Recover the amino acids of this structure.
């Protein structure tokens, strides 16, 4: 059931909302007769520019007239200009506390102080980093925190097979030290060398090549299979395919995590500096030349990379990738390398060395591209990771924001190159070098899959074919804030303990089965309409499509039940005006959970027009003992 308004008091007036000022869509305004009309507003492109001198120190005091900005080689008049400098620690605004909500009411709203410096995010990437390098990163971060400037605002996230928040934004270094000290390293199941600091491990094909004798002439039936040479070639192809598949998984998990992080940061104002510690990020999976089929299992990830870059840009996130491995030498020179594979086939040494150099260069190129695309800086071939963090935060706190309206207003989908110049010579400028002129309200492309939709919903870490909403509804990942909403969850006053709530899809193939008795919960959403994109029909009516989801999880992160509804709003101008004044779109769902046990409920709202998402998760035991609302009249 859909209603418009705030009759249940879900939207809290004290939650001040902010919007991302990247590409502004058309916005509604009120006319004198109370109806709503759309006024065409030019989209605004924001470019944060970090200017440093020869000593890599930030340059302050530059003026608007000293900057020239071009888009696709065409000068762009600046609509706004602002210099940002590190705030004095005594003037920093404290993080406002979330308004106290009544029992049973939850929200994805994230409070942040306005105009008090950038937010810094540290991402500890255990998916792509061996354990020894993770330990090195931890020691370097602890060293940095000994000298962290007062008032620096930092949050810490971790990435394994999914993104998790380890510590929300805080300026308390003691909290950050405690979190870092608890991270003892976790091996990635998708890395061949999970520990690190070793030589290249011998593969099965190496073992066969060095131990299998050649087939004897005139041998019996037992030797009619493939020769050792053929077997080695087949094994190499198999290993190359497996390696490519593992790379594909790591790429997708990493891109999904960056997507989720960008959506979490979307409604926080100002610049965000993402300091990303990774052992590798091989986005460009190059053809493998060690097997018979050099193109086996190679797939393109250009579309996902493009979506991720756009999300980071629209959320004003500058990425600072840091190679967690520090200074490197080729692993085949390591004393831990047995050398068996090289003594049997000396050409393998040259091949492995060439592959290491190519892979290393490609990974660093990818990091540099990600930094350049978002206005950050990449750090590699250095053991001074603590200094890299300090420099990233320092550079990301001193910058100039240039705003302009493109002289070409069309959403062509093509890449628009941005170039910023200074009248003075000898300075280095760091800024994002362009953007894709995609309509921010257009639907994103989803790579198709042959997997069933039920399997995709059941597996929170499904690799392909997931919808954006399924990824946002994964258990334990940070909530998205592109759509701010509150949700009320209360026990049903008169539940049917033997029947699932309407539209629930528990006990489907692939779901963890649940059995009665059940306990039913009433879920009421309240969504901020200013975060929803309405389109104007030719007859003047306002149209929107919104999806509401609830996913029930057990403590192991296995989905037990879910309910999803999509509603289409078709509002005349007068009712649309009333909606904006009331401040909320409310929607009701019901979901059943086993009567006994610990469970969590993840709720989400998806604007199907803009692909913006909001999500939040809470334990059901917080509402089990609350008094239910009276049953609605029949």
């Amino acid at each position: 059931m859909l209603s418009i308004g705030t009759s249940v008091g879900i939207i809290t007036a004290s939650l001040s909302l902010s919007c991302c000022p990247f590409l502004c869509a058309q916005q509604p305004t009120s006319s004198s007769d109370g109806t709503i009309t759309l006024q065409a507003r030019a989209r605004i492109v924001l470019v944060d520019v970090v200017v440093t001198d020869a000593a890599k120190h930030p340059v302050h005091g530059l003026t608007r007239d000293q900057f020239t900005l071009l888009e696709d080689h065409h000068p762009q008049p600046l609509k706004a200009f602002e210099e940002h400098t590190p705030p004095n620690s005594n003037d920093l605004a404290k993080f406002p506390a979330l308004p106290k909500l009544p029992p049973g009411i939850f929200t994805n709203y994230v409070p942040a102080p306005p105009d008090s410096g950038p937010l810094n995010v540290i991402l500890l990437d255990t998916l792509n980093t061996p354990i020894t390098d993770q330990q090195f990163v931890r020691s370097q971060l602890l060293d940095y925190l000994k000298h962290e400037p007062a008032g620096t605002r930092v949050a810490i996230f971790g990435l394994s097979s999914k993104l998790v928040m380890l510590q929300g934004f805080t300026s308390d270094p003691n909290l950050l030290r405690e979190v870092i000290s608890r991270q003892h390293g976790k091996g990635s199941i998708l890395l061949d060398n999970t520990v690190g600091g070793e030589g290249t491990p011998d593969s099965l094909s190496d073992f066969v090549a060095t131990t299998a004798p050649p087939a004897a002439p005139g041998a019996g039936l037992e030797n009619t299979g493939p020769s050792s040479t053929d077997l080695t070639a087949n094994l190499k192809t198999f290993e190359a395919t497996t390696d490519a598949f593992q790379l594909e998984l790591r790429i997708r998990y990493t891109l999904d995590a960056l997507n989720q992080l960008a959506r979490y940061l979307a409604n926080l104002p100002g610049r965000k500096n993402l300091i990303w510690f990774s052992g590798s990020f091989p986005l460009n999976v190059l053809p493998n030349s060690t097997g018979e089929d050099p193109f086996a299992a190679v797939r393109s990830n250009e579309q996902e990379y493009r979506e991720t870059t756009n999300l980071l840009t629209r959320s004003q996130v500058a990425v600072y990738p840091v190679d967690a491995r520090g200074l490197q030498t080729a692993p085949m020179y390591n004393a831990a390398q047995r050398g068996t594979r090289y003594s049997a086939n000396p050409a393998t040494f040259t091949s492995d060395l060439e592959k290491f150099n190519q892979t290393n260069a490609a990974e660093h190129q990818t990091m540099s591209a990600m930094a350049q695309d978002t206005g950050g800086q990449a750090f590699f071939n250095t053991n001074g990771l603590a200094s890299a963090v300090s420099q990233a935060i320092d550079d990301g706190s001193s910058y100039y924001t240039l705003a302009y309206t493109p002289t070409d207003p069309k959403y062509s989908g093509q890449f628009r190159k941005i170039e910023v110049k200074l009248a003075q010579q000898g300075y280095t400028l760091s800024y994002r070098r362009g953007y894709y002129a995609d309509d921010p309200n257009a639907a994103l492309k989803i790579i198709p899959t042959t997997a069933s939709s039920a399997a995709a919903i059941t597996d929170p870490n499904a690799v392909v074919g997931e919808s954006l909403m399924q990824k946002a509804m994964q258990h334990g990942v940070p909530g998205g804030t592109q759509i701010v909403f509150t949700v009320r969850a209360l026990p049903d006053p008169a539940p049917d303990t033997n029947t699932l709530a309407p539209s629930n899809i528990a006990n489907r193939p692939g779901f963890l089965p649940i059995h009665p008795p059940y306990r039913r919960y009433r879920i009421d959403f309240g969504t901020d309409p200013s975060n929803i994109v309405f389109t104007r029909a030719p007859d003047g009516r306002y149209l929107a499509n919104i999806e509401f989801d609830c996913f029930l999880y057990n403590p192991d992160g296995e989905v037990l039940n879910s309910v999803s509804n999509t509603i289409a709003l078709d509002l005349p101008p007068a009712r649309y005006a009333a909606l904006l004044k009331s401040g909320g779109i409310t929607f009701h769902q019901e979901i059943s959970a086993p009567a006994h046990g610990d469970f969590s409920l993840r709720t989400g709202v998806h604007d199907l027009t803009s692909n913006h998402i909001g999500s939040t998760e809470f334990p059901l035991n917080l509402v089990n003992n609350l008094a239910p609302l009276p049953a609605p009249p029949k």
